[in-house]
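Could someone model magnesium ion with this protein?
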Amino acid sequence: MRPLVETVNLKKYFSVRRGVARLLKGRVKYVPAVDDVNLKIYEGERVSLVGESGSGKTTLGRLLLRLITLTSGEIYFEGKNIMLLKGKELKEFRQKAQIIFQDPYTALDLRQTIRGALEEALIIHNLYSREERLETVIKALKSVGLVPPEFFLEKYPHELSGGQRQRAVIARALILNPKFLVFDEPLSLLDATTRVQILNMINEVKEKFNLTYLFITHDIALARYISDKMFIMYQGKIMEAGLTEEVLKDPLHPYTKTLMMAIPVPDPETKISLPPKVSGMDAYMVISLQGCRFYPRCMYATQQCKIETPLLKEVEPNRLVACWNIKS
Ligand SMILES: Nc1ncnc2c1ncn2[C@@H]1O[C@H](COP(=O)(O)OP(=O)(O)OP(=O)(O)O)[C@@H](O)[C@H]1O
Ligand SMILES: [Mg+2]
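Reply:
Sure, complex below.
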């Protein structure tokens, strides 16, 4: 079966500003935000992309939607290289693949009503007649739980709660009848109850619209509720991939184990000590392109790990791990 989304040796290196580059002296002058990523997402799959801050998740999500250029490699959507799309084909791709960001406030135009925002999406893509548009907007609002829709049509973003705003953003994506969605931490600004409600809504619309999605999160515990398959990312590289249930039950990569340890334990008496955390800005200061990216934090690291970069390989059916210490 052909994947809906596929990347081949995908790389995105950001160059470091000159001032910072000088500080780094002879070391890396760029951030390998996405480094040689090969992933396949099949139609209908619910996939999560999990990793700490700075691991390259957003960059990968943006690449898949062609919102930024790549450094090297290929990205395919429905078998077509998206970097080569032009004109009508590119417009179609823009309709079929949508991204939902963390902050719905910045995703919406504050001077536009919800109806205006949703209708605009339809107008840009020449969808439906004038008369059909309002009906389509109402249907989209209903599908994301903004009911009664008449109540929300003429509201401005500031008149909605955070959860309602995120629903509106999702409605605006769904109204285009997309095939593939990237959710980039869409719940992290919401309170716990709203989070659960939106999570349920996403699962409902997934079924209803027969969606395929990539759900980006730093919270590995959340992946259980949102995905059937997961990719674990660290400093630009996929460290482990497999069925969510199996990875959570038996994490193989030491980094995945670290992420599991970060899940809060219900018993406050249980204390676990976490390995030192390296992330964000600090991360690329210490990124060595040689060896395993996780080497400086790994308690099982050997000399080989320091020198040779482990490739992501199948160690069990449907389970890929990039670690010298895990043998198939
Ligand atoms: N436009 C940019 N210019 C330079 N460096 C960038 C740019 N965007 C991202 N980076 C760097 O690339 C790396 C990956 O960033 P990215 O935002 O993809 O991580 P993330 O996993 O989404 O993190 P978070 O969980 O904090 O959102 C980081 O080191 C970041 O500083
Ligand atoms: Mg991000």
